[in-house]
Amino acid sequence: MSGVPWGETRLVQGNEAVALGALAAGIDFFAGYPITPSTEVAEILAREMPLTGGKWIQMEDEIASVSAIIGASLAGARVLTATSGPGFSLMQEGLGYACMTEVPIVIVNVMRAGPSTGLPTQVSQGDVMQARWGTHGDHPVIALAPCSVEECFNLSIRAFNLAESFRTPVILLPDEIIGHMRERFTFPKQDELQVLPLSEPNVPVEWYEHYHQTASGVSPMARFGRGYRFHVTGLTHDVHGFPTRRIDEVVPKMNRLKQKITRRLDDLEQNEIHGVDESSVVVFAYGSVFRSAMAARDILAKKKKKIGVFRPVTIWPFPDRTVKEKLDNKDVIVVCELNQGQLIHEVERLTSDSVRVVPMQRYDGYGITPEQIVSKVMEVS
Amino acid sequence: MAAHLPYEYIYLRYKKKFPHVWCPGCGIGIVMGSIIRAVDTMNWDMNDILLVSGIGCTSRMPVYLDFNTLHTTHGRALAFGTGAKLANPALKVIAVMGDGDALAIGGNHLIHSARRNIEITTIIVNNNNYGMTGGQFSPTTPPGTFTATTPYGMMEPGFDICSLAQGAGAVYVARGTVYHVMELDKLIAGALEKPGFSVVEVLAPCPTNFGRANRLGDAVKMMESLRDGTITQVQAEKLPPEERVGKTVRGVFLDREDSEGYTARYARLCEQAAGGVSGK
Known about the structure:
The complex is a heterodimer of chains A (381) and B (280).
Chain A: E1 9-13, H1 14-24, E2 29-32, H2 39-48, E3 55-58, H3 62-74, E4 79-84, H4 85-90, H5 92-101, E5 106-110, E6 112-113, E7 119-123, H6 128-133, E8 142-144, H7 149-166, E9 170-172, H8 176-180, E10 182-186, E11 231-233, H9 247-262, H10 265-268, E12 271-274, E13 281-284, H11 288-302, E14 308-312, E15 314-316, H12 320-327, E16 332-337, H13 344-350, E17 356-361, H14 370-380
Parallel strand pairs in A: 2-3, 2-4, 4-5, 5-9, 8-9, 13-14, 13-16, 16-17
Antiparallel strand pairs in A: 1-10, 6-7, 8-15, 12-14
Helix pairs in contact in A: 1-2, 1-7, 3-5, 11-14
Chain B: H1 7-11, H2 28-40, E1 49-53, E2 68-71, H3 77-87, E3 92-98, H4 99-105, H5 107-116, E4 120-126, E5 129-130, E6 136-137, H6 161-168, E7 172-177, H7 181-192, E8 198-203, H8 207-213, H9 219-229, E9 230-232, H10 233-238, H11 241-244, E10 248-255, H12 262-274
Helix pairs in contact in B: 2-7, 4-5, 5-6
C-alpha cells in the first residue's frame, strides 16, 4: 500500500488510521521514538513519507522528538510525533514550550496503563489529566479522544487543523484498544477533505509581530528562512518574541494564551449524545469505553430500561456548558473510565448535589465491558 | 555582506536588546564577536541563518543577533536545530551552548547529532561551571576545583569535549579560547564551512563564579591564564612531555572530507525510496 487509499474501503487499524490521517492532512515532518502501543504510527510513516519527500526521523529519545518537531514547525513544516505514557511524560517540557511559544504541533499519545512502565501492552485512560496538566505553569490545551478507526482518521486531520488554527499543540488521545482495533472503514475522497493551509503573514517584514494581538488571539505565523527574522523563546515575551518582565506585557500574554481557547469554544467543542434528554440515568464515557456504553444501552433497552450516553470527543477544553445544560438535571450519572477517576471530577464540578455521580472504573489493563456497565446501572438506579 | 558598515549595525539587534546580560569580564561576548566575524566571511543571507541555543549564560546569545533566533529548553538546542535543519535544509544552523547545556543535560543530543552528522555548526563555550544558576559544577569542572556544589573539591573526572565529539562522529572538531580571538575567528569560520556536524570548544573565563570560588583572580588574570595555560598543536609537538603537563592544546583536531551530511543523505534516501528500493 502506498499513500492514502482515497475512496476505498479497507480493514484498518486505529494507529494506521492516525498515520493515514496525518498523510491526508499533508504532514511534512515526523520525529519519534519507539514505544508500545503507538509504534505503528511511526512505522507506517517511516514507510510512506520518504516516498513523497516528507521528512521522517527517529530521534534519540522523546525529549528530542518533541523538540525536533517544534523546530521543524518553526521552519515551515506540518509536524507530528507519536508516543505513549512514559514517552508522553518525557515530552511535557517541550509541550509547555510549544504552548508558550505558540507553535503548532500534534502529539499522538496512545494511552497504556501506568504509572511508570505499568502494563505496556494494555489499555488505560490514565493520561487524561497528564494531557491537561502535565507541563508546568498555566497553559492552554486541546485534546481529542477518538472512539473508532474512522474517528482516528478524522480526528488526526482535525488535530492538524486545530493546531494551525489556534497556533498551539493538539494532543490526540486514543486509548490502546482504539489504537490497536481493526474496523472496516471507507476512506473519504480527497476533495471531501478540508485541510487548513499553513498560515503566512501578509505584512511587510518591518511590521511583522510574531505575537500580534488580534481579536481571536491568534496571528499568522512566519517561518524561519522566509525573510521574517524573529526571535522565539520560552521566556515570557513581548509581541515581538523578546523576553520581558514588564507586567503590562506579561499579563496580556498570559491572558491571550488562555483566551485564544476560551473565546472560540464553539470551534473546539464536539460531543456525541444519545438519548440524554429522555433519560434520568446517563452513562458518561469516552474512547473505547463509549463503545461498551452504547452496547450496554442496547442491552438495557431490551430490558425496558432507558439510559442516555454522553461522550465528549474533545475532552480538553472540557465541554462545561453542554455538560451543565444536559446533565445537571439527571438523577444518576455513571462516569465510566479506565483509570481511578479523572474526568469524573469535571462532571462532579459541573453538577449539583442533587445529581448522583457514580464512578465505574477499571484500571487492571482491560476494557470496561457492556455487562459491567449494565450491572452498574441496575445497581444504582 | 556589506562589510564596510560596522558589524554592530549589520548583525546586532543593537537598538532593541542592549545592554546584554553577561557579567563584566565574561568571555561569551567575545565568542559572539567571533561568530559575527566568521559569519561575515561566509557571504550568507541573514534570512537563511538560524541561531539556536538551549538555556544558560551562553544560550542568551541569540536574542542579540539579527538572524532567525531560537532560544529553546535546557540542553535541547541540537534537537530543535535538527528538526529545523531537516525540515528546511536551506537553513544554515548554528547552535551555541554552554558546557552544562551541551554536555550534561544535552549530552545525549550532542553525541547523536554527531553520529548522524547533521549539518549544524556547534559552538560550546566552556567556562567550567553553570554560571547562570550561581556557579555549580559541570561536566567540565576540573577535578579538585571548588564550585557552589563542590565545597570540598570536584571529585568527578570531566569530559574532554573535543575527544567526545570526535569519538561520536563529528567531522570538524576544534578548540580555541577567547584570549586568542583571531585564531578563534578562523576556527569558527572553518566550522561554518563544513557541510556536516562541526564542534568548536571555546575556553572562556567565568570570573564571577568559577574564578571567585577558586581565587583565580580578576577577569584579566583569568585571560592571562588562557594565554599561559594553552598551547598550539605545533608547540605541543615540540614540548617535552613533562612540560606539556597542565597545558591545554588549541587548534583543529579533526577535519574530515569523506562524510556526507544527514540532510544530503536523507535526500538521496528519498530518491531511492521513490525508485522502489526497499528492505521488504
